[in-house]
Design goal:
EC 2.6.1.11, binds pyridoxal-5'-phosphate, 11 helices, aminotransferase, 17 strands, alpha/beta, 4-stranded mixed sheet, 377 residues, Aspartate Aminotransferase, domain 2, 19% strand
């Protein structure tokens, strides 16, 4: 049987990884500034993570949600503390799309509405509900199209203020758009959403799958603005440092009911152990502070190198937009300098390294970028 061929891939086979580094099957070493798409939060194969996962695997790795799994409670308690949402409750699932599906269900159960407001260039995942609220017709199959979604312009305060919210259950937005090209939601825009949702009893969902979990330097990117909370946060990617786990953080205004949400794999022993290990490492190693410090250093240094059209982002979620397609630049960084980076659209390099990346490591990227930009100029 062949694989269903949906991914354009690089001819590189990573066989080992440590911290921010990967080694391929030919023994070549690469610096990973992409984190496998924002997933590697605490560094590849972190010793504490490996130890906790191995220990858990030897003990018990799965039983269904029909029994007590105290690891889930430990995870929820630690997540509440580190995210500064101690009074929220947690529903565990397996992927970002699934977290968003469950967030939409909650919102719809809550006020009975069936419409959703999303924003231009949004990406919320590929399952039925999540892809319907994703602003990319090329990945939306006819079966996913419905009349329930309105896309308003991202960061447009007036558009959200003036929108008719009849039958709307949720407004969903990424705190920093990832696939959309590292577009930071402005404070005024998020406050306008908050106000509109308050006025109309609509749920404010902050998709924090990519920009959350400390990536921006705060646990959730809206926490850069004071006194501004979403009703529901969705998380995945960095939550398990590569083990599939996702979460929906739910404000106290929602009442749980048996059977309302559910999943086979969500919150299993091994996934919960991964989630706990990640939170422990983030706290012990102060990785949010590191994301802020290294992110600011990167932004300053990229500004000095220049040659770009726009530099956007926060913490370790950075987009460098050029006025030319970046495919060649990205290939040079990868094949000549052995540096993994990401991309958004055609013209934007996307940096999503581990939150533990060091100054010495990002200096290697800055040196390479500086050289390649000088050659291009
Ligand atoms: C903001 C955002 N939401 C949702 C998703 C979907 O997550 P998953 O691929 O885990 O379903 C992604 C994935 O890239 C994302 O960036």
């Amino acid at each position: 049987m062949n694989l269903f061929n949906v991914y354009p891939i690089y001819d590189i086979e990573p066989v080992r990884a440590q911290g921010s580094w990967l080694w391929d099957s030919k023994g070549e070493k690469y610096l990973d500034l992409y984190g496998g798409h924002a997933v590697i939060s605490v560094g590849h194969c972190h010793p504490h993570y490996v130890e906790k996962m191995t220990e858990q695997l030897r003990r018990i790795n799965f039983y269904s949600n029909s029994v007590r799994i105290p690891l889930q409670e430990e995870l929820a308690q630690k997540l509440g503390e580190l995210s500064d949402c101690p009074d929220y409750t947690l529903f565990l699932c397996n992927s970002g799309a699934e977290a968003n599906e469950n967030a939409l269900k909650l919102a719809s159960f809550y006020n009975g509405g069936k419409k959703v407001v999303a924003f231009t260039k949004a990406f919320h995942g590929r399952t039925a509900g999540a892809v319907a609220i994703t602003d990319n017709p090329s990945i939306v199959a006819p079966v996913n199209y419905n009349a329930h979604v309105t896309f308003l312009p991202f960061n447009d305060v007036e558009a959200i203020r003036n929108h008719d919210m009849t039958d709307v259950c949720a407004v969903i937005v990424e705190g920093i758009q990832g696939v959309g090209g590292i577009q930071v939601a402005s404070e005024a825009f998020l406050r306008a959403i908050r106000e509109k949702c308050n006025e109309t009893n609509v749920t404010f969902i902050l998709d924090s799958v990519q920009c959350g979990y400390g990536r921006s330097g705060k646990f959730f990117s809206n926490q850069h603005y004071s006194n501004l909370q979403a009703d529901v946060y969705t998380t995945a990617k960095g939550m398990g440092n590569g083990f599939p786990i996702a979460g929906v953080l739910i404000s106290p205004k929602f009442q749980a009911k048996y059977g309302m949400l559910g999943t086979t794999f969500g919150g299993n022993h091994l996934a919960s152990a991964a989630g706990i290990a990640v939170l422990d490492i983030m706290k012990d190693e102060q990785l949010m502070a590191n994301a802020t410090e290294i992110g600011e250093y990167l932004m300053k240094s990229i500004t000095e190198i220049g040659g770009y059209k726009e530099l956007r982002g926060r913490g370790l979620m950075i987009g460098i937009e050029y006025d030319f397609p970046v495919e060649e630049l990205r290939n040079k960084l990868l094949f000549d300098h052995k540096l993994f980076t990401g991309v958004a659209g055609k013209n934007t390099i996307r940096l999503l390294p581990s939150l533990a990346v060091t100054k010495a490591e990002v200096d290697l990227f800055l040196e390479a970028l500086s050289k390649e930009i000088r050659v291009t100029a």
